[in-house]
Amino acid sequence: xxxxxxxxxxxxxxxxxxxxxxxxxxxxxxxxxxxxxxxxxxxxxxxxxxxxxxxxxxxxxxxxxxxxxxxxxxxxxxxxxxxxxxxxxxxxxxxxxxxxxxxxxxxxxxxxxxxxxxxxxxxxxxxxxxxxxxxxxxxxxxxxxxxxxxxxxxxxxxxxxxxxxxxxxxxxxxxxxxxxxxxxxxxxxxxxxxxxxxxxxxxxxxxxxxxxxxxxxxxxxxxxxxxxxxxxxxxxxxxxxxxxxxxxxxxxxxxxxxxxx
Length: 261
Known about the structure:
Layout: E1 12-13, H1 16-23, E2 32-36, H2 42-48, E3 54-58, H3 62-72, E4 77-79, E5 96-101, H4 107-116, E6 124-132, H5 133-140, H6 150-158, E7 159-167, E8 172-173, E9 180-187, H7 198-207, H8 216-223, H9 228-233, H10 246-259
Parallel strand pairs: 2-3, 2-5, 3-4, 5-6
Antiparallel strand pairs: 1-8, 6-9, 7-9
Helix pairs in contact: 1-2, 4-6, 7-10
């Protein structure tokens, strides 16, 4: 029996009703699938029942890799590596539909990495990802709300996001102490283009470093005493970070890049 490793944030999905719900979100027949963190393979088995063209899984845990090889033989291709050390753009020459019960301790890091590394040819068509509910709520929140922040802005820059369902701890083994949520992401066709997407990450990181304070200090840190930008974009420096909508942060990033070009 495989024991979940707390150090890797492992909680194995065991609820068949939830598994069926997840694999029925999209038509999977003849799709190329990537599953991140397959664990003991319960969701993997559900995916295979939908007759995909190919299933690629990424699993860091050596013991789980051995289990998956024994369980699925040549039905899947296994990459025994850390997802954060893999260039996702080189995984396949075919577009991938991605499933992931992401380890809670690195879920936001994975999503941010994928967003910031999107190339002209996008390597995925959909992401179906499970997060800690608190994180999912941050991703789908709107401005002027408590949960609005960096992750919200980064995700909504390049992706359409839709909540599928919430999942209670009883659906996992071992049971986590928190609820989870499944989100569906689809790449946007139209979005703000930046010279370097990491500038958006920088702008939002600095602004939200002190989210309860007015934005004067982070603004002057980035733009010195240039007040032309505030009037051009129409922002009040007495506002707080969560008071600025997506587009305002996108426009601030463009102005930041223009000043340094």
